[in-house]
Design brief:
about 230 residues; alpha+beta; Tetrahydropterin Synthase, Chain A; 3 domains; 3-stranded antiparallel sheet
Length: about 230
C-alpha cells in the first residue's frame, strides 16, 4: 500500500509540474501588441493569407508552425528637395518639402506592410517611400499651373495627398503630413507674379483713396450748399 501510495503521489506531482510547465509555455506564446506597434504573425495562418496583422490586443502564436514580429508605428520624416519640376506651363520650379509617413493601421494596408516592408531597416523604407514621393510630386506639379501651385496652397497640398497616399498605401504606409517650405523658379516667374499682385494692390489702393477723397469733397460741397440755402 505504501509503495502504491508513493507511486500515485509521485505521479500527481509529475502531473502538476507538467501542467504548470505547459501553462507557462502556452502563456509565453500569447503575444500582446503595444499601442505603438503592429503585431505580424506569419507561417500557417488563415487560408489564402501569408500573414495575420493586428494593432492592439493580442493573439496566440502556435509553436513550430507560426512565428511573429512587430512593425513600428513611429512616424518617419522624409526631406524631399524637389528641383526643376516641370509645371503645366512648362516652367521649371523648385518645391522643397517635408513628408511625414508611417505604417498604417488600416487592416488591408497593414497586410501590405507585412508583405513588403517587414524586417526592412528604416533607411530602406525611407528610400522606398522617397522614390514614390518624388515621382508623384513631379506628377502633381506637372498637372497644375504656377498660379494654382503658388496661390492656393491648400488645393495644392490636397492634390499631393491624392496622388501620393494611394501609392504609399501599396507598401503599407500612410501619409501623415506634408509641409511645403518654399516654391521658387529660376526664371523668377513666381517673383514677378508677386510683384504684379503687389503693384495692382497699390494701384487699387490709390484709386480707392482718390474715390474716397472725391466723395468727401462732394459731401463737403453739398453740406456748404445746404448751409447757404438755409441762411
Amino acid at each position: 500500500m505504501n509503495v502504491a501510495a508513493g507511486f500515485w503521489i509521485l505521479a500527481l506531482i509529475a502531473f502538476v509540474i507538467l501542467a504548470f510547465l505547459t501553462f507557462v509555455f502556452m502563456a509565453s506564446r500569447y503575444k500582446r501588441c503595444p499601442s505603438d506597434k503592429v503585431l505580424v504573425i506569419f507561417g500557417r495562418v488563415e487560408k489564402g493569407r501569408s500573414s495575420k496583422t493586428m494593432h492592439g490586443g493580442g493573439a496566440f502564436v502556435w509553436p513550430l508552425i507560426q512565428d511573429y514580429t512587430y512593425l513600428s508605428l513611429t512616424p518617419i520624416t522624409i526631406s524631399i528637395p524637389l528641383e526643376n519640376a516641370l509645371s503645366l506651363q512648362n516652367i521649371r520650379i523648385n518645391v522643397p518639402s517635408t513628408f511625414t509617413v508611417g505604417v498604417s493601421t488600416a487592416p488591408e494596408i497593414m497586410s501590405n506592410a507585412a508583405e513588403r516592408i517587414l524586417r526592412l531597416p528604416q533607411n530602406a523604407i525611407e528610400e522606398m517611400a522617397k522614390e514614390i514621393i518624388f515621382g508623384q510630386l513631379r506628377l502633381t506639379v506637372a498637372s497644375l499651373t504656377i498660379e494654382q501651385i503658388n496661390q492656393d496652397r491648400e488645393s495644392f497640398l490636397e492634390s499631393i495627398r491624392r496622388n501620393v497616399e494611394p501609392e504609399l498605401n501599396k507598401i503599407g504606409l500612410q501619409l501623415i503630413n506634408v509641409n511645403i517650405t518654399d516654391i521658387t523658379d529660376a526664371s523668377n516667374y513666381i517673383s514677378s507674379i508677386g510683384k504684379k499682385a503687389a503693384s495692382e494692390a497699390i494701384n487699387q489702393a490709390k484709386i480707392d483713396v482718390a474715390e474716397q477723397t472725391r466723395y468727401g469733397a462732394i459731401g463737403e460741397a453739398n453740406a456748404v450748399r445746404e448751409q447757404e440755402i438755409k441762411v
